[in-house]
Amino acid sequence: MARRLLPTLLLAFSGLLGLLPAAAAAPAASAPVPPRSAAATADGPYPSTEEIDRARTDAGTKAGDTAAIEARLTAAQAELADAGRAAEQAVEAYNGAQARLAKARTESTAAARRATVAEAGRTDAAERAAQLAAETYRQGTSAELSAINALLGARGPRAAGDQASAIGVAGARTKEILDAATATATAAARASVAAKEAEQSAARAAEAVRVAKEQAQARLAAQQSQVTEIAGRREELLTELAKARNTTVELERQRREALETIAQREAEQAARAAADAAAYVPGPSADSAWSAGGAEAAIAFARSKVGLPYIWGGEGPDGYDCSGLTMKAWHRGGKSLTHFAATQYAESTPVGYHQLRPGDLVFWTHTGRAEDIYHVAIYIGDDQMIEAPRPGMEIKQASLWIMGRPDFYGRP
User: Fold this and answer.
1) Which domain holds residue 175?
2) Pick from 339, 348, 307: which is nearest to 321 by CA?
3) What is the DSSP letter of 353?
4) In a domain, 8, yes or no
5) End position of a domain, from candidates 173, 204, 237
6) pTM of the model
């Protein structure tokens, strides 16, 4: 039986061998076959251990490269935020210098006015003292001695009583004139010194404004330069990322923006949780300080300015900085505030997050100290605010937590 099947099997095997050249040629015609190592040729059609290790190394290198690029993109975004914050701090430092200058000039004017009044009083007192001296010279004796002589020549008890009274009057009058001359001269001298000191203080404040303005301009120029430089660096990094992942720059840009949005939302949630956890008990005047009508007017004003540009030192109508916007908004609401964020907090009644009402002001600082406040916005309810963010941006409505948890809250 086996002998009868052997010719048949040999014939079939010969036919199969005849098909081998055509089968081998088919892969070559469709696509090149990647080279295989000697180990792979010997062991079969599977990648060798060496090839697997190399692939793993390449994948790890590519993953490391993309992670490094992602980290550099994150650092660039943080650098951009820091540049904007530094620029706004410089602007508020200028606003603070301006506020101090205005105060110094007011005090200087008031001191000069007091000095003028004091000098007029000194002149009047000096004239009265001069008249007393002239009278004494004409009589050849003092007013008191003249009254005593009259007393000695008096006739009758009534006349003597009148003359005795005259002595007292003359003595008191003389003392009054001399004391007034001395006191007013001293007061005039002090007022003059105070006026000069106030004038010098105003001059120093004016110089501080000049320096602060130069520093703000330099910081703003640096920020704009950083914005341009970081934008270029960001594009380069996105290009590198697209190459590493074998995608497109646009796809990587969209992916990066989505990641940044997620990170921003997570940061806002953390800030909200921190505010919820912070306990604050306002003073008894907090509720009484709130005015519904004033708050509505202030918010309406702020809403009407959404879309206008941030202009440093701006008080409108074409643009505002952060404290310029809140100052003008609450001016419409019937309250007077200084164009300086830190002073606006001092001019307000402190409240806590859980006591916030529409129209209240929210403040940020990089140190946690009220004197270092550099940003202010107006709260409109539902964890939303209206702000003039920073140079290069427009006035907008935003989440209360977009800059992290506010450090202070105040009710104008």
Assistant:
1) 78-237
2) 339
3) G
4) no
5) 237
6) 0.66
